[in-house]
Amino acid sequence: MDTEAELTERGHSAPDQGSERSRSAFPSWRRAGVLGVACAVFLLLLGNFVVQPFLIPSHSMEPTLRVGDRILVNKLAYRFGDQPERGDVVVFDGTGSFVREPAAGNPVGELLRGAGSALGLAEPPDTDFVKRVVGVGGDDVVCCDAVGRIQVNGVPVDEPYLFPGDTPSKVPFRIVVPLGTLWVMGDHRSQSRDSRDHLGEPGGGMVPVEKVIGRADWIGWPVSRWGSVTGPGGGAGGPHG
Q: What's the whole-model pTM score?
């Protein structure tokens, strides 16, 4: 009788142990999957509304930003009444100012590309650019004075962030920046297609403030380049040339 009781207890306990192992294994796997999805959603929301990483694909902002740098763009910088200032390095959508309206593409491909860009894993869209603000609405911007400097409202601009050997501009110009727009230029002037290259086009090379995605505040990658993207008087500056 004792033997039968022992066998009966073992027979009942063995399946329970197996089902406990089964129940404990699958929930942990599912929890990991849910956690991964939640992290991805959090990063996408963060990138779309707060801070978005951008991969630098060109030389137009050297030495401030280098090809392969990943900058962190503060998308809240101008959300609460603040406006871009001279010297800010901004990321903007150049549609309608620097590039024409793109033709409709594959929506799935665009979604994946947008997600990759939001996570900083892919190059930014061809319509996104990073430049330095040289003139804001109402400014009279002239190039160049007797010693080759850009003047804003009659005051020469000191530009220590320029690429070594570059002049402020080989193209002479004088423009008055319309209200609500920006005049922007790359730090590597000889390698940058910027407001100067669109003077004769609709919009005259001006970037509407409403098209600004955010301010490039930090270099997040590589580790050796960690630091802030500084304004006038600094050496750092941010996607497209």
A: 0.72
